[in-house]
Each structure stands twice: as structure tokens, then as C-alpha cells.
Amino acid sequence: MCELFGVSSAKPIKINKYLVELVAHSCDNPHGWGFANFREHKVTLHKHPGKASESVQIMSFLKEEIWVNKFFAHIRMGTRGRRSYLNCHPFTVVDCMQRQWTLQHNGTIFNDCNSYYSIISHQLCRSSVRPYCMSCNSLYKSDNTGPGRSPNI
User: For residue 134, which of 62, 51, 41 has the smallest C-alpha distance?
Assistant: First the structure.
């Protein structure tokens, strides 16, 4: 099963040790990894369909202190679908109100993946799904000040 990591903090926190621990688990979750860093009302995604512990990109990120307020990380144990960039999480979708959502999950949500992203986008318009998701618009209520600096993750 995949592993997920998330941060939602009023003050920036250093996450290097948590990411090192997550990456160490990639031997059991070798089918991809992804990071989503939420900063200045934007999300930056980095992901790859390979083992996180073998990623030159991740090792480069971890050389610097990583301070974040809002952050997602995911390592994949593929049980369905191909090993591909599109099957790595987190990912973004736009709902019917043109809001961008950043999501990650564990397990199979739909058995028929023909229109996976359009189904998720449609479902985000329903009020029953919204409480379980984080939108970019609601992530930045703090002044984003704090110790350290955040690298371009």
C-alpha cells in the first residue's frame, strides 16, 4: 500500500528528517514518488515513476534545509495501472468552478480508470467531497514567515 505524508502548519517547519524516513520506505513502495509544495498561492509538483531512494532529484532537495507550511509527499506501491508520471501522486485537477485541487490517496478509488480525472473533477463539485480535500485557495492564510528558507521544491 502507498504511504502518504502531509504538513499543514501555521508556522514553517523543517521536514528533512520526515522525508528521509519516507524515502527509506521506498523499498516497499518502489513504483513512484511525488511532492507537492504549496507556496505563494501556487502548488509546485515534483514526481517520478521510480524508486524514491534512487532519485537524484530527491537527494538534491535533501541537501538543503526544507521549511514548509503546506506540503504533500507520496510514495507509490502500484497495484493498478502502469508505472507512469500520471499515476504518481500528488496530482492536480480543476473542478466545475475552475478551482484547482491538489490530491493524493491510498488505494484504488475507481475500478474503471477511463475517465478517472474527469470523475474526480466532477465529484469535487459535490459538497460531500470538499471537506476531505485541500484547495490552494484555503492553504494560505498565514504570512508565510518563519525560520530558514524553502528551496525550490
Answer: 41
